[in-house]
Amino acid sequence: MKKLLIIFVASLLAAPACAADNYTIDPNHTWPVFEVNHLGFTTQRGRFNKTSGKIVLDTDAKKGSVDLVIETASIDMGFDKWDQHLKSDEFFNVVLFPTMHFTSDKLVFDGDKVVAAEGSFTLLGVTKPLTLTVNSFRCAPHPMNKKPTCGADIAATLKRSEFGMTKFVPAVSDEVKILVPVEAIKD
Predict the structure, then answer these.
(1) What is the pLDDT of residues 74-125, one digit of tens each?
(2) DSSP of 145-175, one letter per residue?
(3) d(CA 126, CA 162)
(4) What is the rounded distance in angstroms from the CA atom of residue 109 to the CA atom of residue 113?
């Protein structure tokens, strides 16, 4: 019996361990967009042109993590004067807070698909819990570079006043919708 136990333990140790895969966020295909109601007339949209980050994904164990960094000075509203206004200390204060940051160590799965990421979001030096909804999650070889790639469309809604961004609330809505297409390539 002792010999059988030793063989069993040795076979467990020799079995290949399921390892998480590491992915680097592709900054050329990951552009966070936000939407905010402007004076009750329209929905205004802007985006950030510079992102970076890592994703760790273990679909067998149904776990992983996300680390997404957004450069606030890369804001793009479509014309320079508006960009400069939003970079000021009245809004994103890019001099003191050059980045926004989402981190998560809890991915929510439905079968083999990630459907949410529960974590925290830091804006203007304030960190609050934030859950991202993950839609259209897919991992497959990239059709052009043939590297394993994962992608999804993520969404969340937050109140900017909770992070200290209160200028023009409520005329410019407190509620901000965030939409991010994310693509990440396996390291």
Answers:
(1) 999 999 999 999 999 999 999 999 999 999 999 999 998 999 999 999 999 9
(2) T-SEEEEEEEEEEEEGGGGT--TTTTTEEEE
(3) 8
(4) 5
Enumerate the domain spans of the chain.
18-186
| Band of residue 68 on the pLDDT scale cut at 50, 70, 90 | very high
Residue with tokens 């497959």: 140
Residue type, 117: A
Which class does domain 18-186 fall in? Answer: mainly beta
Q: Are 82 and 55 in contact (CB under 8 A)?
A: no
Taking residues 158-173, report their average pLDDT: 97
Positive or negative: CA dihedral 167, 169, 173, 175: positive
Residue 7 and residue 78: Cα distance in Å, rounded? 66
Tell me the C-alpha distance between 160 and 176, whole Å: 7
Secondary structure (3-state) at 158: strand
Instruction: Tell me the C-alpha distance between 179 and 152, whole Å.
Output: 11
Q: Can you read off the two tokens belonging to residue 124?
A: 């203007």
What pTM was computed for the model?
0.87
